[in-house]
Amino acid sequence: MTSRTHPDPIAVFATVIGTAMVIAVPAAMAHLSFWADMYGSVLVYLAFVEYLAVAVGLVRWGVGHWLVSAGQILRFERDTYRVPGRE
User: Fold this and answer.
1) SS (H, E, C) 53-76
2) Which residues fall within 8 angstroms of residue 37, CB to CB, at 6 or more apart?
3) Cβ count near 34 (within 10 Å)
4) Which residues are CB-contacts of 25 (< 8 A; sequence separation ≥ 6)?
5) C-alpha–C-alpha distance, residues 46 and 23, integer Å
6) What's the pTM?
7) Contact 60/73 with Cβ under 8 angstroms?
8) What residues contact 57, with CB distance under 8 A and at least 6 apart?
9) Digits of tens for pLDDT over the chain (87 positions)?
10) What Rg, from alpha-carbon coordinates, does the chain have?
């Protein structure tokens, strides 16, 4: 079994995009009440929660995939937990 020393580029991309989305949340907080008045509070706040869920999901998936590809965390294979590269 070969070990990878470089993280998966898609995992890095997902982590960067997700982090940027999370960082952008405070900038949008000032506009939420205005958008809620214009478009309806239920629609705006549900969209905001969905946006946050996608951002956090991207970060979680990216970091998790990044660690698995680098061999840093345990992986489930054939009914046993083991570290990739260690038999």
Assistant:
1) HHHHHHHHHHHHHHHHHHCCCCEE
2) none
3) 10
4) 51, 52, 55
5) 19
6) 0.71
7) no
8) 18
9) 455 567 778 888 999 999 999 999 999 999 999 999 999 999 999 999 999 999 999 999 988 888 777 666 655 554 455 555 555
10) 19
